[in-house]
Amino acid sequence: MDINIYRRVRDRKALLVALKETWALHAYFPDAKRPMLVYELFFDMALLASCWVDVAVVDGQPVGLLAGVLKHHQPVACRLYNFLASIAFYTKFAFILLTHQLGKPRFVLHQLREVYSLEAMCKLHKDPHDAQIELFYLHPKARGHGAGRALMKNFVAYAKTHRARSIALWTDISCSYTFYDNYGFSRDASFFSPILAEPEKGQDNGFVYTLKIEDKE
Ligand SMILES: CC(C)(COP(=O)(O)OP(=O)(O)OC[C@H]1O[C@@H](n2cnc3c(N)ncnc32)[C@H](O)[C@@H]1OP(=O)(O)O)[C@@H](O)C(=O)NCCC(=O)NCCS
């Protein structure tokens, strides 16, 4: 496998397909007119919160990415771009909502409230850390060949260059969270959220992982 990392989103469509193969997000909006719309919105929203996006290209095909942000290093160009992109995103989202493209607006808003309360809970755990990962995935066919480690290594090096001391992220039991254990992250918190995958009885289904940057090369 020929693995390359690019600092730019290329072939958004291929990245959306990889996202769809990773998480069944459309299940949260069963009445969406186009399931792919859910992935487009999720993808764009994660990128709005990021100033670092590395795309993994395997055998010439974009297969996934790592998107993240450093609290104390957000270049003006990135802030401006994300600000303008946010205006475009929320305008588009309002149109989608009002035209019932995701289903009944009341149901959509209910689902979004659940997502926001999950994000808010995770934010409390992630906030003390000065680097955060917003999105990290690879197409199932591209996994297990080192592309994930290469993406993570690049982000850790970038965070280290800008003097970030720790990286945080949240994940859940439907994800390959053991990747983080393997990489050297530690599990800082676990929680239960009704919108995540059903856990074993009484167990948590979400985790916050952190990595101390001094611990890595
Ligand atoms: C997480 C993910 C990006 C890792 O990418 P990857 O290319 O498969 O990982 P790599 O091949 O670089 O593996 C790096 C190391 O992690 C380990 N690893 C990777 N996935 C693992 C898994 N699911 N369980 C246990 N260990 C895993 C590998 O054995 C490897 O260890 P080594 O370097 O000591 O040999 C990928 O598995 C994925 O997209 N998973 C689904 C989405 C997801 O869970 N995203 C992250 C959580 S939000």
TrEMBL record:
Keywords: Membrane, Transmembrane, Transmembrane helix. The keyword Iron does not apply. The chain crosses the membrane at residues 80-98. PROSITE patterns: GNAT. GO terms for molecular function: acyltransferase activity, transferring groups other than amino-acyl groups. Residues 120-214 form the N-acetyltransferase domain. It comes from the Bacteria. This is GNAT family N-acetyltransferase. It comes from Entomospira culicis.
